Amino acid sequence: VEPLDFLTSIRIDLKSVAVAYFLCESINKSIADDAIHPEIFSLLLLSLKKIDKGGNRQKIREEFTRNLLTDLGYVPQDATINNPLKELENVIERKLGSVRIGKLLQ
Asked: Taking the CB of residue 55, how many other CB atoms lie within 10 A of it?
């Protein structure tokens, strides 16, 4: 298997790696291991590509979290979420470890 995109910009920037880890941890803790969610995979891939292209990591993380909550049915599409991270942690009933890592890198 050959990767179509190596996402090299993420791999060489520790802050980008931390955000990518946050995206993966968010998915891992919010859906069952055997669940099939192609829309979530597409959301992850789109977000990783945005990070790789040098997009605003904070904005990408917040947008990803909002979309994840919406796609999984926890929040209506048109709802306003003031703190997407807090909302996600309420849904999964635990803190995300990757948030601490991201704060250490700031």
From this structure: 15
Residue of 16, 87, 8, 92 whose CA lies nearest to 51: 16
The helix/strand count (H/E) of the chain reads as 6, 0
Distance between CA atoms of residues 32 and 10, nearest Å: 26
Put simply, whether the predicted model's pTM sits higher than 0.85 gets the answer yes
Q: Are 16 and 10 in contact (CB under 8 A)?
A: yes
Q: With a cut of 70, say whether residue 13 has pLDDT above it.
A: yes
Burial class (CB in 10 A: 0-12, 13-18, 19+), 88: buried
Average pLDDT, integer, range 67-77: 96
Tokens read off for 94: 């635990």
Question: How far is it, in rounded angstroms, from Cα 95 to Cα 101?
Answer: 12
